[in-house]
Amino acid sequence: MTRRTALLAAAELLAWWAALAVLWLFLISTVYTLEFVVGIAAAGLGALAACAARRAVTGW
Amino acid sequence: MVNGWTLAATVGLAGGLGAALWGVATGPLRRRVVAQNLATALACPGMLLLAQGYGRPAYLDVGVVLALLGPVGTLVFARLLAEELAEDPPRAWVATWTVAALGAITVIALCVATGPGRAMAKLLVIGALLIGGNVVASRALSGGFGRVGRG
Amino acid sequence: MADAVIVVALLLVAASATVAVATRDPARQALVLSVLGVVLAVLFTVLQAPDVGLSQLAVGSALTPLLLMLTVRKVRRCGRDEEQKR
Amino acid sequence: MSRRVRLWLVLTGGAGLAVLLVAACLNLPSFGGDRHPYGDRAVRASIARHTANVVSSVNFDQRAFDTLGEMTILFGAVLGCVMLLRQTRDEHRARPEPAEVAPPVRRYALLVLPVALVTGIYVIAHGQLSPGGGFQGGVVAATALHLLYLGADYRALERIRPLGVYEVGDALAASSYVVLGLAGLLGSTTFLANSLLPYGTFNTLSSGGTVPLLNAAVGMEVACAVVLLLARFLDQAVEIEKENGE
């Protein structure tokens, strides 16, 4: 893996993480610290799955 | 408790799901799969209207799950019935876009009633998932899966 | 009048369940079954039981059709292999 | 038994069942009345333990032992399926062929997979607050993974689905439910008693004592069990073939 692809992969992961965290904010009704922590964790898991799925399909 | 929202939901569910049931019970396979797709596309706006009519935002979660998994169910049929559908592909763009428009009108009306905020964003996400999902599922039914061997 | 939506949902459930029983071909039956799942979820929601409605949707909209259609595919493929052997 | 006798047997049995059902219905309380003795008690107990969703309180607190039974039934059923649908000696595995999928369908699958996964986790995490819970969310999350089979092919799904991890997860989640039940014995004399943790602030993720933990255990168990179940069905439908040379 070159430096360029590593950067691209990291950017992809972060973009998914941010997008899914925003989705979590839309789903919930009230915001407080614990909710935020759980949301960030769930969004991280979703971002990992998104990147793994994309890699399984396209192959790099 | 009767209000405009529940009334609209009653009329929509009775007409829409009744028609979908008729479509899925009779006719060739290509008509049945389209009716199955439209059943979820019509039921989801009905659920959103019911949530508004009952005044319980928590019921929106049923709509979220339906908007996510309904099109996935149609993809299951499109994928595993691909051979039979390839011989006689469904062409139902008029019905698909009509139902999508109904869903969009429902979501917009609910957004106007809700007012700006995160609740409105949730409604918009549901609407996007529902309409996008059903259009893609419709595309998948009419030749979305090419040659499927053993896979 | 407030019960109209409950009556509608009950009638839809009765009709789609009857159709599901009356359909013979398993693939078409799975299609009817998935519509029945959606209708049942509507019935549970109008009876103020969204938890049960969510369970019904989660299981009935994608999981049950997938299990049924995979089984249909396996049975059909076995039948085709048997024919080829003859 | 001749056809005639069987018909009579069905008719007699059906008529008996119909009479019993009608008799039972006549004694039911009328539809939608305002007296709910069980409902009132369940709501009171649920609010006393700071659980906003009464159904979750009934499932994971007041009747947590029943849920343990239900979870065990699912565990046993999946175990039975895994045993029955395993690869036998006269079968071999063939490589699954890639499917041709239209680009919009593939993009949709890749986009909705993480969204459905996060929604599943949301439904599990908010089980004690809003409609939903471990079972519903677990099924949604497990279904999300299989979008990769629908939108691509079985090989792509196999790449992100290490079955051993899900087997371990299934067993761990099921046993952690029992461990939480045994931990209930520490503070009281009852198995699965909700007396271990503070009840927390009403209508937050940490409210309800052990309810959110049991909810999460069931969610993980159901998600892993559904993945394992579907894996066996997919193996049979896609990969496993009878040996030709027998």
Automatic annotation (TrEMBL), chain A:
Query: Native species of this protein?
Result: Streptomyces spinosisporus
This chain belongs to the protein called Uncharacterized protein
Enumerate the transmembrane spans. 31-53
* Superkingdom, taxonomy of origin: Bacteria
Record bears the keyword Transmembrane: yes
The alphabetized UniProt keywords are: Membrane, Transmembrane, Transmembrane helix
UniProtKB/TrEMBL annotation, chain C:
Entry-linked Gene3D superfamilies: NADH-ubiquinone/plastoquinone oxidoreductase chain 6, subunit NuoJ
Q: Where is the MrpA C-terminal/MbhD domain?
A: 11-77
* InterPro entries linked to this entry: MrpA_C/MbhD (IPR025383), Nuo/plastoQ_OxRdtase_6_NuoJ (IPR042106)
Coiled-coil regions, chain positions: none
Q: How does this protein sit in the membrane?
A: Multi-pass membrane protein
Q: Does the keyword Chloroplast apply?
A: no
Q: Where are the transmembrane segments?
A: 30-47, 54-72
Supply the name of the protein: DUF4040 domain-containing protein
From TrEMBL, chain D:
Which InterPro entries does the protein's record reference?
CPA3_antiporter_subunitB, MnhB
Keywords on record: Cell membrane, Membrane, Transmembrane, Transmembrane helix
Which coarse location class applies to the principal site listed for this UniProt protein? membrane
- Where does the record place the Na+/H+ antiporter MnhB subunit-related protein domain? 106-227
Domain of life according to the entry: Bacteria
Check the record and name the Pfam families matching this protein.
MnhB (PF04039)
Q: Topologically, how does it sit relative to the membrane?
A: Multi-pass membrane protein
Give me the segments passing through the membrane: 67-85, 105-125, 131-150, 171-193, 213-234
**Compartment(s) where it occurs, according to its Swiss-Prot or TrEMBL record:** Cell membrane
The family line of this record is: Belongs to the CPA3 antiporters (TC 2.A.63) subunit B family.
Name of this chain's protein? Sodium:proton antiporter
Organism of origin: Streptomyces spinosisporus
Recall the taxonomic lineage recorded for the source organism.
Answer: Bacteria, Bacillati, Actinomycetota, Actinomycetes, Kitasatosporales
